[in-house]
Structures are given as C-alpha cells and as structure tokens.
Amino acid sequence: MLLNGSLFNAFFRCNATAQMVVQAETGRILGANDAARAYYGLATDDETDRYFYDFDTHHPGVTLAELNLAAQGIEQTINSTHRTALGLREVMIHTCAAGNGPETLILATIHDVTEQMLRERTVAADEERWRSALGGSGEGVWDWDITSDQVTCSPRWTEMLGYGPHELGSDIREWLRLVCNEERSQVTTAYEKMLAGGAPRLEMEYRMRRKDGSHVWVLDRCTVLRLDTDGRPGRIISVHSDITGRKRIEAKLRSFNESLEREVQERTAALNRELRMREETEQQLRAFQEQLAALTEELCLAEERERRRLAAWLHDDIGQNLALLKILIDRLRERSPEQRSQIGQIAELLAATIGEIRNRTIQISPPLLQKLGLTPSVAKLAADLGAAHGFSVSVEERSPLPQVPLSLRSTLFSIVKELLINIVKHADAQSVAIVIDRDDAGISIIVRDDGRGFAVETLDEAVYQNSFGLFHVRQRIGLLGGAFCVESAPAQGSCCSIRIPLQAHTGH
C-alpha cells in the first residue's frame, strides 16, 4: 500500500472510521485522519508527538507487540480499552502493514465497540443469572448454538442423566441418542418443526436413557433465543425438569383409578343384579298381594254368603220352629190349667229365645247394611249396644262413602262390632264416639271411648293372649291391605283407627 498515493490519501482523510498510520518499531503516530483526531481529541500539530500505545489503559506492551506482528504481514485484531475524548472506551483495532518503503508502517483502524461490549456483557450477566437460577432450582439446561452447531449443557443436565461434567460431547446427536427409541421420532418431528420456523417454543414430555440404563422422565421446555437472517432459529435453549417422581405418582393414580373403576363396575353390576332381584321380588310381592286381595275379597264374599245362609237358617228354620213351638205351648197352657204357671214360664223363656235369635239374625246380616249402607248399620248397632250396656253413643259420617261391595261393607261392619264388643267387655266406658270418613285414597273409621284404657306396649301380648277379638280385627284389616292403630293410656280411654285403601276394592 502506498501511503503517499493520492487515492489512499483521499480515502484516508475522508474515511468516517478512525484510522492512524503508526511506526511499527516504536508505535509512534505518523498520521491520523479527522475521525481519529475527533475520537481521541488530538490537535493537528500534536498528533505526531504521540504514541499509539499511550491510549491503551491495560497492556501497552501487548499493543506494541501486536504492531510488530502486523509489520511482519500477520494482520491482527486487538481488543482493548482506550482513553478517548469521550472517556474510557472499548475499542477493537484492526492492524495491517502499509507501504513498501524502507520504513515499516502500520495502518490501524479503530472501531468503538463500547455499546456492543455492554450489550454482550449484559447478555452474559443475564445468562449467568438465569443459569444460576435454573441450577438452584434443580432444572437441567442445554444450549444449542445452531449456527456453530455447538451444544453446551449445564452440570445439572448431565447429572440428571447420570453422567459426569465432560462425559457427553457437544454434538446435538449426543442428546438425541439418549432419547428413548419409542419417543425419538416424536421428539425429532417436534424439533424439526421448530427449526423450520414453525413454532418459537415447544413443550413436551418424554423419556431419556440414563448412563446406568434406567430411564428418566423429562419435561422439555424449549425456546428460540435468536433468529438468523433467514428467519430460522440460530440459537435455542431447552430447560429439562426431572418429572420421574410425578410420573410414578400418575402411574399409581392411573392404577388406583383403574382399580376403582373396576370396583365401581363390579359394585354397579352387583347393585344392578340386586335391583333386578328386588324388582322381581316386588313383582312377585305385588302378584301375591293381588292374589291375597282377590282371596280376601272371595273370603269376604264367602263370609257374607255364610252370614246370610246362617241368618236365613235361624229365621226360616229355627225361628219358625220355635214360633210353632210357642203356639203349641200356648195351646197346651189353655188345656192344662193346673200347669199353667210352669207352661207360662216355658212360654216366656221361649219368647225370649225367639227375640234373641231375631236380634242375632239382624246382627249377623243386618238388613240395613244391604239396604242403606255402612253408617246407618253401624249407628243402629252402636245404639243397641249402648242402650243395653249403659253408655252414650255418637256416630258421625264426615264425607259420603262411595259405593263399595257388600262384602267390604260387611267386613267393616264386623270389625266395628268387634271393637264395640271389646269396649263392652273391658273398657267400662261412659261414652263412645265413632267417626267414619273417606278421601281419594280410602276409608277411615275411628272408634274412641272414655274407658279405663291400657298401656299400648302391652297390646301385642293382650292381642295374642287375652283378646281374640283384637287379633281377629288386626288380621282382617291386614288382609284388606289396611292399617290398624291403637292409642291408649291407663285411665285415659282408647282410640282405635282403621284405614282401608279403596283402589283394590272399588277399581277406582
């Protein structure tokens, strides 16, 4: 290069980049362009009195040695800190031999890289901070500079795989080789998509093979840190978290859930079987209840027919025979005056027997029950018993009763009669109240007295041991599908409640 050439001088003087011509052996400045004078704060007349290494704050001797190497034709790049008009600045100096005269000269081109160095130091400090943070958190990190194809791994990453600090190479294929065969294709596809510019980050879970042959589950969170000029990733960083413990827990949870689901299915199947059995049992029970209701209805009809037959037999056969016998005795009394008194007594006893048979005939099959219904028959029965045994009676029908079969009316009449007879035998009551009512569901009858009462807890024993009437009442009500309730206490009277459903007996 000719320093005195007009073309060089024009380029040198007008170049916006700071340049100096320096004597190789001594480092003396022989010339500086305007950009260099302004950068270093040099006056035009004092630049030749300065030495280039005077600006170096760190290693002036090294700078001089680098100039000598450049004089030998070995171009050098020197990084240093210089004193400038702006203060201390980071510079990068490119040196090369210039001129072919007897004196060896060096052309030094000075670039201010202070801002670049600050950015690089900031980036380096940030990297150091997050590397320290990740290292403290137990996360493994590998950093792939795609441009240089170099991989840097954190100690924690290699430790996670059971390797020493330098046992794994810096080739990306080393990492891919450690991914389990079953998941390598999936991982490769995801990273190829990222490298093609398809996604700035990815997150996935897969297994990697440890040095001892065991497997470690990792959560891989990869991020693109830098893009090249073509828009493709130039550097990516991946953070690996060891999630083996979590995967074990998940496996146990899956196993537990599967076991629980099997148990639920088994219990559900057993419950369904039980429900089916219960439904079958309920169907059988309903069928039995229907049969029982039909049998009860048939029994009531048979009982009513038997009452009528018995009443007819008492009235037509026994009653007529007794009436004829009374006529004969009356005639005999007229023919035998000497035995009139004894025959009169026989006639009176026979007349009382005929009256009793008539009353029993009416009670067995009351004509009112067939003609007027349940309530008038019950009222007549209660009035007769009250008059005969000295207690007052009230009968109330709160709602008109529906038309029910004669068999049901006869059965209800018999039940009320049993309760009234039980009062006559045991209660010593002064008054009896009977309430007959109905609603959409059934017929209710309440028989209440003010007699001596009894302890309800002794009712079952009394029913089975001392009172066939109450036992019979309970059994008949049960056959009708009804309910029988007794409320009583010593010296507080008794209240018997009867509830008979209508649907099975009326068809409504």
From TrEMBL:
GO terms of molecular function: kinase activity
Domain Histidine kinase positions: 412-504
Pfam family, one: HisKA_3
InterPro entries attached to this UniProt entry: HATPase_C_sf (IPR036890), HATPase_dom (IPR003594), His_kinase_dom (IPR005467), PAC (IPR001610), PAS (IPR000014), PAS-assoc_C (IPR000700), PAS-like_dom_sf (IPR035965), PAS_fold_3 (IPR013655)
Thylakoid as UniProt keyword: no
Chain segments annotated as coiled-coil in the UniProt record: 246-298
PROSITE patterns (alphabetical): HIS_KIN (PS50109), PAC (PS50113)
Keyword Secreted: no
Location of the PAC domain: 202-255
Alphabetical UniProt keywords: Coiled coil, Kinase, Transferase, Two-component regulatory system
Stated name of the protein: Sensory box histidine kinase/response regulator
